[in-house]
Amino acid sequence: MAPSDKTFTVTIVGGGIGGLALAVGLLRRHVPVQIYEAANAFTEIGLGLSIGPAAHRAMPLIDPQIREIYDSLVTTHADSPGYEEYRQTWFEIVWASGMKEGEVLMELKALPSGQTTLRRANFLDALVGLIPKEIVHFKKRLEHYTEKQDGVELVFDDGSAVQADVVVGCDGIKSRVKESMLSAEESMLTQPRYSGMYCYRAVLDMETMVKAVGDQRARVSSIYIGKGAYAISYPIMRAQKVNTGLYVLDPTWDHDTWVKPVTRERMHQDATNMGRYVRSLVEHMPDASQWALFEHPPISTFCRSRVAIMGDAAHASTPHQGAGAGQAIEDAHVLAELLSDERVETGQDAVAAFKAYDHIRRPRTQKVVSSSREGADFFCLCLDGVEDDEERLKAALQSRFRWLWDLDIPEQAQRAKTTMYSVLESLTDNSRPCNL
């Protein structure tokens, strides 16, 4: 890495996909980085991962190696012989039950990348290879941080503490960075909340999936829409496996943890009204555990002084918009561009970078959270004004994703820089939240 002209180091708390993408982007731009990770190794919770077109375009702008890694690992519909024509298909939307059970409502395309999927752990493992070992500190679970006159003190649960110039919290939906950053009242009011839906999920062998639902439904990414529930499936691992899930609306969650084991009878009961395709899919799921889906209520700011949060730490979302990981990647691009800018020379200058990041990214990411929550009702055919009306469903499907996918990624970063330059000229009080 070339010498840096920065007088500050960016300390990243948390080493998931978003945190590592940011680290790679900063290192490529010669910004010094240190990473503190709670676990004893980098790990990723979750099964399949799907990245939309906007985040796909952001990857090479962070670092071309990220896009190269992603493209080398992903599965597309073209990995199944005979399905090359579906290369640009995002999902086929399929009626789960009723008179049109099994029929395709519409084919939703995501140009030009189409559906690209992979296992989260595989992507994370590959990103780890881009991170120098000497900048990583494992078994460092943050307890809290304290602002100092010239930086930030991070205190970990092992009793140790480090002094940081600039901090970015990438520590997930239960973020301790966020908890310390917000006021006690706001932190209490914006704890992760149950979204009103839980899911069952599994990775099945392609051969098993073909027997369960037929060749096309197994090999083409599908969303089965139904009353009160919906199901999803998409191929991963070069079409050798299929990631599957059944999502069920339920207003209450009465368990202390976010995962609750139930009987297979209960799981089958949740699929009773879903038609033979989904019932057969559920029949082959080996684990009858319900996974509660939580999300972040909107918060007032993504930064305070020399500390910012990104990814799930800032805007954890349900999966119904297919954009959670993609938003973390977009965050990483904007932050890498801002913090590496030649006008950001000191830790104090980074305050302006964080203000600009918050100004540009918070509205979009919080819209993703609310739109995804609405998506649960949409796919369960109970969204007001749409419900199960075929034409309204088709029109709404197009509008639900176009604003998300069509973002001009370079222009977003440029808007953030323009905002930052304005803040740098006027910044006088770094004790306030970062709203503009």
From TrEMBL:
<dbReference type="InterPro" id="IPR002938">
    <property type="entry name" value="FAD-bd"/>
</dbReference>
<dbReference type="GO" id="GO:0071949">
    <property type="term" value="F:FAD binding"/>
</dbReference>
<keyword id="KW-0274">FAD</keyword>
<keyword id="KW-0560">Oxidoreductase</keyword>
<dbReference type="GO" id="GO:0044550">
    <property type="term" value="P:secondary metabolite biosynthetic process"/>
</dbReference>
<keyword id="KW-1133">Transmembrane helix</keyword>
<keyword id="KW-0812">Transmembrane</keyword>
<dbReference type="InterPro" id="IPR051104">
    <property type="entry name" value="FAD_monoxygenase"/>
</dbReference>
<keyword id="KW-0285">Flavoprotein</keyword>
<feature type="domain" description="FAD-binding">
    <location>
        <begin position="136"/>
        <end position="371"/>
    </location>
</feature>
<keyword id="KW-0472">Membrane</keyword>
<protein>
    <submittedName>
        <fullName>Salicylate hydroxylase</fullName>
        <ecNumber>1.14.13.1</ecNumber>
    </submittedName>
</protein>
<feature type="transmembrane region" description="Helical">
    <location>
        <begin position="7"/>
        <end position="27"/>
    </location>
</feature>
<dbReference type="Pfam" id="PF01494">
    <property type="entry name" value="FAD_binding_3"/>
</dbReference>
<dbReference type="GO" id="GO:0018658">
    <property type="term" value="F:salicylate 1-monooxygenase activity"/>
</dbReference>
<dbReference type="InterPro" id="IPR036188">
    <property type="entry name" value="FAD/NAD-bd_sf"/>
</dbReference>
